[in-house]
Write a structure and sequence with these properties.
about 425 residues, alpha/beta, six-stranded parallel sheet, binds uridine-5'-diphosphate-glucuronic acid
Length: about 425
């Protein structure tokens, strides 16, 4: 099938490359000329393992890139995968999605399915439909499908080829069938829902994941007080199938472009409808406090942080990505600087993206041991494998004091004690 994908972020580009692999003829469109030039040279403008190779494999065959809209003419399906970043009040900025709807108007002379993959609030399908009708587009010329995406950064390729489920929300059987045929090579449950149901499923999924994380983080604080290991507790409850083992890693809190944004989006929707979302608000509140707890822990161990040399290992909001959006490293570093610590930081891929987001006085290095030299403490913020496999005897040798604050529980407290570290995990 011929399809056009609007937007070449994580979702748009991964979807485009996956559909090209499935044999569809895909054009990915973006307004950013530099990005499109890069993609036309086979370079992915962000770090996502495996995506480069997939794009290169299909480039100029099943997969094309353009800033022009020409491919829409012959596309049966147009997938909207542009961003919906948060506004100040927590609501999502819908301007990019609405711009896509506007761009489609001249092309809706022949029937097309508009697939909304961008994360959008409940009611968006109706807003876009009403808008197109108000612009004189005939109702018979389009259907709108709400088709949320559940891929994670860092494992985007795997997640899109092997999704847990596909959600297709539409009131048109024809549109559902066309959308389904895009994905028919995926072996997973396919849920056909209303548009509104699909829109809500996405917000609910991310908010539930956020809830699991804030729950385990709160439990970690309680465990810490009673000298119980949260990792044992997480496994102990997680093997109960009703609870599940995933998303029970206690730590510095959730970041990224999705969980924080969709949680605020759902809170905004609830508020607007007159519901006070008490659970969701607490989830957000607990998460906002996590970075400061790391700094407090450090202060409990070192006393005043003034002029103390602190090495921060990890900047990205999670491993296998260079994405710094809502990364917990940002508030942690800002707070350390406020406490007048001398902060050094290392990340294997996110350093460049981090620079404009953290205070200038922070020294970013490309050597994780060098930043730890003569340091008073190392704080682990992202659980990169590189850190898990660190040469701990070298690390101990270069540090002034062997204090480790492990914000991701990547080491075993017993091993670290044996190695001679003053090791402080999270919730253990
Ligand atoms: C999230 C969802 O997991 C995807 O299903 C969804 O498609 C995506 O948002 C989206 O809406 O586009 P992502 O933001 O890439 O994916 O990252 P996650 O793997 O969900 O991690 C989010 C944050 O939670 C990270 O900061 C991570 O470190 C933290 N986290 C995750 C924990 O602190 N503990 C955990 O147990 C799991």
């Amino acid at each position: 099938m011929k399809a056009t994908v609007m937007g070449t972020g994580y979702v748009g580009l991964t979807t485009g490359a996956m559909l090209a692999q499935f044999g569809h003829k895909i054009t990915c469109i973006d307004i950013d000329e530099r990005k499109i030039d890069q993609l036309n040279m086979g370079q992915v403008p962000f770090y996502e393992p495996g995506l480069d190779a997939l794009v290169k494999k299909h480039l100029n065959k099943n997969l094309k890139f353009s800033t022009g809209l020409q491919s829409i003419v012959n596309s049966k399906v147009v997938i909207c995968a542009v961003g919906t970043p948060p506004n100040q009040d927590g609501s999502p900025d819908m301007s990019y999605v609405l711009a896509v709807a506007q761009q489609l108007i001249p092309y809706l002379k022949r029937y097309k399915v508009i697939v909304i993959k961008s994360t959008v609030p409940v009611g968006t399908k109706k807003i876009i439909q009403d808008y197109l009708l108000s612009q004189g587009v005939h109702r018979s010329k389009f259907d709108i499908v709400s088709n949320p995406e559940f891929l994670r950064e860092g494992t985007a390729i795997h997640d899109s080829f092997y999704p847990d489920r596909i959600v297709i929300g539409s009131d048109s059987q024809r549109a559902v069938s066309l959308t389904y045929s895009l994905y028919q090579q995926c072996e997973c449950p396919v849920l056909i829902t209303s548009n509104e149901g699909a829109e809500m499923i996405k917000y609910a999924a991310n908010s539930f994941l956020a809830t699991k994380i804030s729950f385990i983080n709160e439990l970690a604080d309680i465990c810490e007080k009673y000298s119980v290991d949260i990792e044992e507790v997480a496994r102990g409850i997680g093997y109960d199938k009703r609870i599940g083992l995933h998303f029970l890693k206690a730590g510095v809190g959730f970041g990224g472009s999705c969980l924080p944004k969709d949680l605020s989006g759902l809170i905004y929707l609830a508020d607007k409808s007159g519901i006070d979302p008490k659970v969701l608000r607490s989830v957000s509140h607990i998460n906002a406090e996590r970075p400061y707890q790391v700094v407090n822990k450090l202060k409990n161990v070192l006393g005043s942080l003034e002029n103390k040399k602190i090495a921060v290992w990890g900047l990205a909001f999670k491993p296998e990505t260079d994405d710094m959006r809502f990364a917990p490293s940002i508030p942690i570093i800002k707070q350390l600087v406020e406490e007048k610590a001398k902060v050094y930081a290392f990340d294997p891929v996110a350093a460049n993206n981090a620079k404009p987001l953290i205070p200038e006085c922070v020294k970013i290095s490309n050597d994780m041991y060098e930043i730890a030299r003569d340091s008073d403490a190392v704080v682990i913020v992202t659980e990169w494998d590189l850190f898990k496999n660190a040469d701990l005897s070298l690390l101990k040798k270069v540090m002034k004091y062997p204090v480790i604050i492990d914000g991701r529980n990547i080491f075993s407290p017993a091993d670290m004690k044996l190695q001679g570290f003053n090791y402080y995990g999270t919730g253990r």
